[in-house]
Amino acid sequence: EAQVTQNPRYLITVTGKKLTVTCSQNMNHEYMSWYRQDPGLGLRQIYYSMNVEVTDKGDVPEGYKVSRKEKRNFPLILESPSPNQTSLYFCASSFPGAYNEQFFGPGTRLTVL
Amino acid sequence: QQQVKQSPQSLIVQKGGISIINCAYENTAFDYFPWYQQFPGKGPALLIAIRPDVSEKKEGRFTISFNKSAKQFSLHIMDSQPGDSATYFCAASYLAGNQFYFGTGTSLTVIP
Lengths: 113, 112
Prior knowledge:
The complex is a heterodimer.
Chain A: E1 4-7, E2 10-13, E3 19-25, E4 31-38, E5 42-51, E6 54-57, E7 65-66, E8 76-78, E9 87-94, E10 103-104, E11 108-112
Parallel strand pairs in A: 2-11
Antiparallel strand pairs in A: 1-3, 3-8, 4-5, 4-9, 5-6, 7-8, 9-10, 9-11
Chain B: E1 4-7, E2 10-14, E3 19-25, E4 33-38, E5 45-50, E6 56-59, E7 62-67, E8 72-77, E9 86-93, E10 100-102, E11 106-111
């Protein structure tokens, strides 16, 4: 089944404790992205990647890191999480091209205490 | 600065009615405008998309109307059904890239 998977789905952590949210896709997509979703703010792009070893900042990259060492994986790293990073996070992937349909993962609910 | 502005924030429609959600954008370089649908507990999924070289695109009960001069586009859901109850996001992007700007979302409730 074609899908984007994220782990963990739920995470409660404390300020300053480094964490990684994994994202993997099995559709051989070149493009991948991370978004955060907050009430009243919609979806905001954190980082995106257009190929292996090619990443770029989105709208809200502060406090986040990413890496793209393999085509299928795009982990999101929070080196020192803070309470304002409490949010719902989505990973997405797509092919480049005419209608660039993004396929989203199921989301990761992160709470930073 | 919000690149894409979406309204209304919430919408309640009777079954069989027409739901209309509006978006406006600033950057005339955007050349791809998708709408995504999100059900509670799920990730967003592409519903319909349009490029600025056409003024309207229809897929079943869903239609995008696009006004390039006004820098506005809207989603029309005809014969709205309770199963359409979801959050809808408009977005703007560049076809040649992977950078997306989403609206703030519209929570649609269709009353039976």
